[in-house]
Every structure is written in structure tokens, then in C-alpha cells.
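Input (structure):
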């Protein structure tokens, strides 16, 4: 850094800079570079393509899907655009809280083309995943014309239907890694924690409920551009508050049953999603709104195309992907002493335990190993210094037919459900825009009176 500052800055100034000043400004420049590197880290596309091809295509996929959701929002009006940006606020809030709260810091994303916040959040997570799952579900579920208390759970269920193939294939293709012993994600199906589905449902529902309540209190049914600050406030409330209302939904069912009575997360998640489904079914069966059954002739829009593209991508990926060739070099659960534990505080007041560090000699994450790492599993560089950045390798399918069956089945099943919602329900409700009367100049009024 000193050489660069001398060569390109100090030597080109019209005045001399003393050694002490050069040292101070050199340190400041280094701190600035470190800060920018923490904010956003770049990785060459060629490197990702060589080591983690499926992840590169996954990033491109969700950039495309995010673009389709934004195109729909832009075409549909200001309030839809605001929802889109509200989901961005929601994504930024949730991701950063998960990284900063030690009790929730239990996953590490693969390194993308651009990765933010200390190499923890790839761009496709912030602009891609949340928009594809939450915005798409938010819009399409509105075609059911449900009351507010059922609309939120419907959006949550829709988010799960879009998330499930991504969760199953993403972890198998090492698009991220989980904490090995965290009690909240210990119970899994195809290496996907059951609580992941609980998370997507409860948080999408919470975003919807808070947004609807905020708009009910702060703005009118008609969109009025003069109240744009209030409209923005509504989406900020929803984006910032969804995490906390979602956490409350965890505290009402999952945490008491799991933490106190040791009920398996599979049962709590199925029960939670079943409650959501019952709410939606009850509301839909008693729905007297005529608009909920008129059908939608032009149902295949940007969002329908996005769903089709996502499902087709994963249906093809499960057939042709080669997980054993994957090398994911980046942040993972730190490697350190195997006997050191960490407290996990739960909303019920109980304190659970998890291993603080990843133990390369004794772990239960069968979707990764170290066969591609020269010299075998990495170790701590020195005692007391955990290893955070290292490479892990993908593993082959134990039974590819099982993955093919579940991915193809849920994609076809959910496609049929989405068709019923998108095409056979109603059209997307759009709030009217307030028409402002044009002012008539006093001079024109005077001339009109004279004419009379």
C-alpha cells in the first residue's frame, strides 16, 4: 500500500508530504480498501465456472428471475414496484441479522461473482431468491382474493412451493453449507433443515401482514403520489418487521415443542404448514368475492414464465449435475477445537448447545467431504486461530433416482397448483390511482364569465 500511495498519489502532488503524513494516509487508505472489500468482494466468473459451474448458472438463473419480477412490478404500477423494493429491504434485514446474531449464524453461502457483507451474502440472494419466492407468491396469491388473515398464509405457502426445489438441489450442489450441530437445523430431509420451510412460510406471511396493515393505517385504497413518503414507510415497516413477526411465529409453535418436549422439527413444520393450508382452504371455500373465480385469460405473464424457468432449471440440473466435481472455496463453519461449545438462546428462555467449530474428524454433513483438497482435510493454521476460509468438495448422489423423483414430482405438482392459482382464479387486483383535478387559472374563469 505504501508503494502504491507513493507511486500514484504522493509523487504526483505539487507539494511534498512528510513521512509521518504519508504513513497516516497510507493506513487510512488501507482501512478504506478493507472496508470496501468487506462490503463487496468480487470473484472472477472464470474461477466460479471452473470450480463451481452449477452455482454460476444458479446465479445467472436468479438474476434472470429477479429481472422478470421487476419487469412485472414496473409494468403493474408504483405500488408493485414498492413491494419489490420492500422485499429488498426484507432481504437485507434478514440476511444481516442472521450473520450478526450468533444464535442464528448457522449457514455460509458459496462465493458468488459479487458477495457482500464480509463475503457472506452473494448478490443473487439479495436480488434474486427473495424476489422470486416472495414477490411472485405475493402477486399470484392475490388472485385468490382472500381476506387478509388468509392472504398472508397463502403467500407463505407459495414461497415454500418455490423454495423447495431450490433448497433440495442447492444444498446438494453445495451452494451453501450448514452448521454441523446447530439444534435448530439439526433435523433435515435431503440435508435441508425442516425449519427452512418454516422460515420461508412464516417470514413471507409476516411481510404480507405487516404491509397490508401499514397500508390500511397510513394510506388510502387509491394510490396518491402525494403520499409517496407514507407508501415508502409502509414497505420499510414490512421489510424491517417481517423478521420479528416471523420469529414470533417460531416462538408460538416450534420452540416450545422442539426445545421443551423434544418434538422433531419435521412434525412441527408439517403442523405449521398444515395450519396455513387449513386457513387458506377455509377462506377460499367461503370466498364470496366474484372476482376470485372469473379466470384470467392472460395468465402467462412474467411471473408464470419465471416459475416455469425455475422448475425446468432444477428438473434438468438433477439429471445432468455432477456434485462430485464441485470445489467450493470460501467461508464455511470455522475449523477449530472439537470440544468447544457455544450457547444457543431460544425464545422460550432455554439455552441449548452447539459445537462452536467444525470438526473435520467427526461431522455429519454428507453432502461435502475433502477428497479434492490436496493433503486431506484442512486444519487450524495455529492453536487458538480458527480456520474460516477453506475448500470443501461435493459428493456424489447416494441415490440419484430419489432426487430425480422428488424434484420432478414437486415441480410438476406445484406447477399444477400455480396454474390453478394464476389462470383459474381471478386477475391480479390493482389499486386505483387517484385522479387529481386540473386547476383552472383565474384568468380563464374571468374570461368565461365575461363571455356569459
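Output (sequence):
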Amino acid at each position: 500500500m505504501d508503494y502504491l500511495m507513493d507511486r500514484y498519489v504522493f509523487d504526483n502532488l505539487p507539494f511534498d508530504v512528510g513521512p509521518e503524513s504519508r504513513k497516516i494516509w497510507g493506513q487510512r487508505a488501507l482501512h478504506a480498501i478493507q472496508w470496501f472489500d468487506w462490503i463487496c468482494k468480487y470473484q472472477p466468473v472464470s474461477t466460479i465456472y471452473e470450480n463451481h459451474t452449477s452455482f454460476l448458472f444458479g446465479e445467472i438463473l436468479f438474476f434472470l428471475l429477479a429481472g422478470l419480477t421487476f419487469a412485472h412490478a414496473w409494468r403493474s404500477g408504483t405500488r408493485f414496484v414498492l413491494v419489490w423494493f420492500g422485499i429488498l429491504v426484507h432481504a437485507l434485514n434478514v440476511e444481516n441479522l442472521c450473520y450478526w446474531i450468533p444464535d442464528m449464524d448457522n449457514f455460509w453461502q458459496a462465493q458468488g461473482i459479487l458477495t457482500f457483507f464480509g463475503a457472506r451474502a452473494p448478490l443473487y440472494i439479495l436480488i434474486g431468491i427473495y424476489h422470486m419466492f416472495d414477490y411472485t407468491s405475493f402477486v399470484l396469491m392475490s388472485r385468490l382474493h382472500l381476506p387478509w388473515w388468509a392472504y398472508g398464509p397463502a403467500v407463505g405457502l407459495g414461497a415454500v412451493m418455490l423454495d423447495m426445489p431450490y433448497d433440495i438441489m442447492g444444498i446438494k450442489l453445495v451452494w451453501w453449507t450448514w452448521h454441523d450441530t446447530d439444534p435448530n437445523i439439526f433435523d433435515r430431509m435431503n440435508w435441508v433443515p425442516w425449519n427452512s420451510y418454516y422460515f420461508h412460510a412464516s417470514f413471507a406471511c409476516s411481510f404480507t401482514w405487516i404491509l397490508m396493515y401499514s397500508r390500511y393505517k397510513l394510506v388510502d385504497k387509491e394510490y396518491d403520489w402525494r403520499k409517496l413518503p407514507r407508501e415508502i414507510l409502509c414497505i420499510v415497516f414490512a421489510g424491517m418487521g417481517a423478521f420479528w413477526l416471523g420469529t414470533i411465529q417460531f416462538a408460538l409453535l416450534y420452540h416450545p415443542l422442539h426445545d421443551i418436549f423434544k418434538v422433531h422439527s419435521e412434525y412441527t413444520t408439517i403442523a405449521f404448514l398444515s395450519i396455513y393450508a387449513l386457513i387458506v382452504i377455509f377462506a377460499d371455500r367461503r370466498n364470496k368475492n366474484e372476482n376470485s373465480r372469473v379466470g384470467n385469460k392472460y395468465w402467462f405473464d412474467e411471473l408464470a414464465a419465471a416459475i416455469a424457468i425455475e422448475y425446468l432449471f432444477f428438473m434438468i440440473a438433477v439429471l445432468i449435475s455432477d456434485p462430485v466435481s464441485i470445489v467450493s472455496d470460501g467461508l464455511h463453519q470455522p475449523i477449530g477445537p472439537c470440544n468447544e461449545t457455544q450457547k444457543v438462546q431460544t425464545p422460550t428462555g432455554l439455552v441449548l448447545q452447539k459445537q462452536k467449530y467444525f470438526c473435520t474428524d467427526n461431522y455429519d454433513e454428507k453432502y461435502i467431504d475433502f477428497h479434492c483438497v490436496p493433503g486431506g482435510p484442512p486444519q487450524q493454521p495455529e492453536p487458538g486461530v480458527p480456520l474460516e476460509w477453506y475448500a470443501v468438495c461435493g459428493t456424489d448422489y447416494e441415490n440419484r433416482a430419489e432426487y430425480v423423483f422428488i424434484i420432478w414430482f414437486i415441480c410438476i405438482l406445484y406447477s399444477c397448483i400455480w396454474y390453478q392459482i394464476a389462470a383459474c382464479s381471478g386477475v391480479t387486483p390493482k389499486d386505483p390511482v387517484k385522479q387529481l383535478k386540473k386547476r383552472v387559472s383565474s384568468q380563464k374563469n374571468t374570461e368565461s364569465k365575461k363571455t356569459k
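Notes: Residues 219 and 227 are 7 Å apart (CA to CA). The chain has two domains: 2-37, 46-423.
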